[in-house]
Amino acid sequence: MTSPAHPLRRRIGVLALHLGLLALPVLTGWQAPACAADAQSASAKPAVAQAMVVIDNFTFSPQELTVPPGTTVTWVNHDDIPHTVTEENKAFRSKALDTDDKFSFTFNTPGDFSYFCSLHPHMTGKITVKPDPS
């Protein structure tokens, strides 16, 4: 015959359920890495670079942007009318973006990517992708 769980152990178990993972470090003795370098090495995922281009008043801002490979650029339309983001060589093309709609594209290949709004061709921009000099 087994004895019932110790009352304190049962309370700790219930507390862990209520606090979720916040209680886990206390109950297991887990400690955070001592410095940022240790925290980085503990994580296998590299940081993803991101950039934003705002569409407003019939312009892309910034009009030209330089980013390293692997960067995801997001365009956000803040105009009251639809716009598109269309690369000249068809590397990417958004649907018509209504107010506050977003379009994202990840640039993995170095080079220059000129784009325009297919609804308003005078609206132009350029993304330059080049590796960081390191």
Automatic annotation (TrEMBL):
InterPro entries: Amicyanin (IPR035668), Cupredoxin (IPR008972), EfeO_Cupredoxin (IPR028096), ET_Amicyanin (IPR052721)
Listed SUPFAM superfamilies: Cupredoxins (SSF49503)
Domain EfeO-type cupredoxin-like: 42-129
Pfam families tied to this protein: Cupredoxin_1 (PF13473)
Protein name: EfeO-type cupredoxin-like domain-containing protein
